[in-house]
Amino acid sequence: MKIAIFGGSFDPVHAEHINLVRAAAEKLQADKIIVVPAFVPPHKQGKNMAPAQDRLNMCRLAFAGIKNCEVSSYELNAGGTSYTYLTVEWFRRKYPDAQFYLLVGSDMLKDFYTWKNPEEILAQAELVACNREGDKVNFRAEQIRFFAKFRKTFKTLDYVGKNVSSTETRVLCAFGEDLRPYLPADVSDYIEARSLYRVERVKDALRYMKPARRKHSLRVALMAAGVAAKYKLSEHDVIQACGLHDVAKSLDLSAPELAGFSPEEEVPQPVLHQYTGAYMAEHTFGITDANVLDAIRYHTSGRPNMSVLEKVVFLSDMLEQGRDFSGIDKLRRLFYEDLDECMFQSLKHELKYLKRERRDIYPLTEQAFEYYKENRSL
């Protein structure tokens, strides 16, 4: 009997999860595929996660039409941090005569070396990996590395998954975007009915923005949410700050929402909206988190000694995929490697541009540049 186990947060389960299961069923000729939603995946803390029961229900909806596929609540019932070696061990005891496979995406394959007790997993199951568009994992090189470490090989699927990310799906949901291109209709309807992945006041703030500004804010949130886990940030806070960062961009100071706002002295017009945005976030939308408010308040100028959230929002605003200027690819690479160096190089680029265009330079931006120049790690 051949059994393939497919674990993950499934937060939410999307079309590529389903396609991977179908491809594995055909490749392995599996008698059973067991989908196992994790209670708390060790690499997912800080995510804007849906409740465990909702993720289980979404998986049951998504995989209902696949023959010999069952959704197990084992890890959800066990509670605590979900470790794959314990899950495989449990199913091995349940099906002692079965041949087990463990399905992983290329991103999980690269991280497998950091999993808890990977040798115990490989003693009980064979890894089966699927590549994903854009990942560009060299499976031949990875096989050499894998064998050198574990003295075992892994299987690969011919199927290459589309580059669909659960993180991106959660951001799209928070912004009220149509999820049907990425999720099964039943799952999309379930998310809507249960109001999952909502982030307070983001959709309300978008009503103040023109379509182009809304698209920009979405791209900023997508970029920032993509590094939230890496930099140990709350995904909720990241999405909220990005969703509201430009909320006052189109408002005049005479707008009712800005009654009581006192602008800072000598603030250049392109910088002013960071202050009016923070004011609106607090006084119109009721945001009380100081970290979120400061990320909005300094997203254009920067400042010395910024918090990680402030840096991520500042840089995502400058480097989101809709931007295009000389040197942006280098800055984007730094964004994923070294935030402080990225801040230094980005501020350097910004000041050079402002001087070349003879624009007003806000003192806080110069102070931020000097701070990151003095505190470079290189």
UniProtKB/TrEMBL annotation:
CDD domains the UniProt entry points to: HDc, NMNAT
Record carries keyword Hydrolase: yes
* Role this protein plays: Catalyzes the reversible adenylation of nicotinate mononucleotide (NaMN) to nicotinic acid adenine dinucleotide (NaAD).
- E.C. number(s) listed in UniProt: 2.7.7.18
Q: Which UniProt keywords apply?
A: ATP-binding, Hydrolase, Iron, Metal-binding, NAD, Nucleotide-binding, Nucleotidyltransferase, Pyridine nucleotide biosynthesis, Transferase
Protein name, per record: Probable nicotinate-nucleotide adenylyltransferase
Q: Name one Pfam family in it.
A: HD
Gene, per the UniProt record? nadD
Residue ranges of domain Cytidyltransferase-like in the record: 5-170
